[in-house]
Amino acid sequence: MTEILDIKAKDKGIGGALSNFAPHAFTIDGVQCASMEGFLQALKTPNVKKQQKVCAMTGIDAKNAFRRSPRRYLFLKTHRVYWQGQTIDRMSGEFDALITRAYDALFENSDFRRALECAKGKNLIHGHGKAKKKETVLTEEEFIFQLLRLMDKL
Known about the structure:
alpha+beta, about 45% helix, Tetracycline Repressor, domain 2
């Protein structure tokens, strides 16, 4: 039976290292990101300077960047995200391509690649993830797909 690996931020092992909260720095479109969570949360604002500030965050700080903000509710209502002055439909292929580019950039981080290597052969799940695209910037399915896609590159 294949070992299940539940990816969650509070895991002190590989599950935590693969979490979007993990402090794995990468650069996308010239923007420095301290974590994937910072990048994902930054997509909720059209303000480029605010995006850069949120991209520099990790973990719960990034997650909470818009917790009480009208931006969070606007995303849930419109399903629009923003990147580098562009408005992107969350449900579009353009969005999917942006997420793939971000994960490809993250793949350049050697600590992240090491964590992927350690997770090879395991059944990856993300028990805290949401399933509906209308409810989140990145669903559990999209998240796991990106990780498996990158594992295939190792």
